[in-house]
Specification:
Length: 135
């Protein structure tokens, strides 16, 4: 229900190529770092969103979604489930087209709010796993 194949495909192929990755830092041992690298290899512009606002994979970082001075298509969320709902709400507020909660990030109320606001959403999945499956 939270990750139907049609929505996964739509977000990965039709929602746009500017992905804000919330929780992405320069820490190479974190999953967000590797996933962002895969997204870049698949033609996505990765925008790091982290309180440190570090440059990662050649892209300048921002402390919040609201601080990004250009449109964002997809918000990829690498924060704990209890912090994910406000990120989804911020994604809606900035006009993103879709929200992607990473593996293990689950907030059913945020999913319902985000979908009700008209955004596509996937929860508890990883785009680095899903992209190669597109064929």
């Amino acid at each position: 229900m939270y990750a139907d194949p049609a929505t996964i495909r739509k977000i990965l192929t039709e929602s746009g190529d500017t992905w804000a990755v919330v929780g992405l830092s320069s820490n190479r041992s974190r999953a967000a770092y590797g996933v962002a690298e895969v997204l870049q290899r698949h033609g996505k512009r990765v925008v790091p969103v982290h309180p440190k606002a570090e440059t990662v994979h050649g892209e300048p970082g921002y402390p919040t979604l609201a601080a990004i001075p250009f449109p964002v298509d997809v918000v990829d969320v690498f924060v704990n489930s209890d912090l994910a709902g406000p990120v989804a709400d911020e994604a809606t507020a900035i006009g993103a087209k879709a929200v992607w909660f990473q593996l293990g990030v689950i907030d059913e109320e945020a999913w319902a709010r985000t979908r009700a606001a008209g955004l596509d959403m996937v929860m508890d999945r990883c785009p680095a796993i899903e992209l190669p499956r597109l064929g």
